[in-house]
Design goal:
Shape: globular
Low-confidence stretches: none
Number of domains: 3
Order of helices and strands: EEHEEHEEHEHHHHHEHEEEHH
Oligomer: single chain
Largest sheet: 9 strands, mixed
Structural class: alpha+beta
Amino acid sequence: MYTLKQNPEDFIVKEILKLNLKKSGKFNICLLKKTNFTTLRAIEFIAKAVHVPTKDIGFAGTKDKHAITEQYLSIKGISKEKISKVSLKDLEITHLGFADEPISLGRLEGNEFIITIRDTDEGRKIEKKLNKKILMPNYFGEQRFSKNNKAIGKALVRSDFKKAIDLILETNPDYQIQEFLDKNKANYTTALKIIPHRLLKLYIHSYQSYLWNKTLKNNPDAKELPIIGFGTEPTKEIEPILKEENLGVRDFINKKIPELTTEGTTREAYIEIKDLKLLEKNPLKISFTLEKGSYATIAVAFLLECLDSVLKDLID
């Protein structure tokens, strides 16, 4: 056993992203350093502070909550001076320059991690792996799921909006949603539209991630596997999953809220842990880089050779 994220400084994440900065432009490019904040929650606070809608703040990927993370943001339509006046606890925003295009999901190249692993003496295992090519199973990590995330996503895919709302309110009570439903009984479709679109899509992505983890567990020799969504071709790898979930790929077409229609894609089954360095042995502290969309918690579990126990709750 070992302990991760005992303190925020035990889990440091730095985004890797190519920037083409200019002296002027439509979008401010900023570096956000946050502690104990989800990316979406941090953006809500920043949007309120600079008086812009959250949709005007772009980002390349979400980052862990229980960590110290650095990532890039684009903010549309405000002055550099306004950004410099932002003062928020546990959020630090630094103006870097300007760009003609916003930062958007998918632009992320990868992440650098500096991780302290407590309650373990497995430093020698790490040391033996240095300077070797290490391929790890590319499972989605536990932060992809959180409490109720995949269940909410499944309800959205099935257009069971009442169940989705009930689960969302159980996790994050929102007076606006409850207030709306008190006045508009059973109008769950409109109630969902109060929730930021990006958050609703993250719930669906969580369910897709859960399905993908199950697919890799059943097909450990695969090189690439489908992330199930609209347009995914049924194959021998995913047919058992679809049957078990009583699901069809066309269920990802959302006729009531078309914005939630989610296409399928593919994901590499194994990816390389790059630039592995042993920084300290007691407590064990390591650094490495991963491609975008891959999880440091999975990398640590794999490096310490206890993958099965870590992934049990993600797959079963």
